[in-house]
Amino acid sequence: MKRFASLIVATSVVATCLAGLLGGVSAATAAPTLPTLNLALTGTTGISVSGSEVSGAVNVVSTFTGKGQGGAALVRLNPALPASQALAQGFQAVESHHGDLNALTALGDALVFDGGAPGTAQTVLTPGAWVALNVTGNGNPAFMPFTVSQSASPAALPTPGGTVATIEFGFRGASVLHRGELVRFENDGYLVHMVVGIQVKNRAVAAAETTALRAGNDKLAMRLASGTVNFAGPLSPGGMQQEVISAKPGVYVLACFMNTQDGREHTQIGMERTITVR
Fold first, then answer.
1. Which of 7, 12, 71, 202 sits most deeply, having the most CB atoms within 10 A of its CB?
2. Where in the sequence is the domain holding 61, given as residue range(s)?
3. How many distinct structural domains can be found in the chain?
């Protein structure tokens, strides 16, 4: 998975564990009306979980103590297996597949949330075993397992103003996002996807950016970009998070930089879409 290394803050490249997550400039914040799940990250080696560990919608509030920006992720483990077995299987599967997060899907695991720290976003917790990851560094991520219990009255997510969905191999949903608007990002495909926004000067440059990405010319694409924002992901199939948009107004090219089995980035097979943030 090649990257715009000088523009995107990489939270982790974990080829031997549960993550290979691309982080970036914080895309958004979330409304504070839901129960809160707190993820406290310390450097690259510490993470603690507190707050609401019951099923239903939550605000995931990530804090970070250290230099720069951290990265946090949540993985839902296979509910049919003991937590320790599911956790060990997940690490082993991703390692044996050279960091491919799609290996989680076959095990019944799912990467359902990925965000920068500090940061806030909304997602939904289901009953069962989970693991929170500190994916700030380039080594094995710090992690903390936790258990989500069944709520008698699970909180519901607020209705978003718009939805952006990933599929194989493209994006669906809103083509205009508004600052201050609650937007849902979800993976409706069968593969792991991400939603990276590449800001460009105008729609003419967006067309050139798309052409460069489809040609696999990331160096040219990087030169054409004026900034990037990581809206969501990587997310497993069914993964979802929603956020209040705070990205700068302008034209963006949405892109997914996950790799196919033959090594091509998803951008090379058409996974781009031009949108506007107002």
1. 71
2. 28-148
3. 2
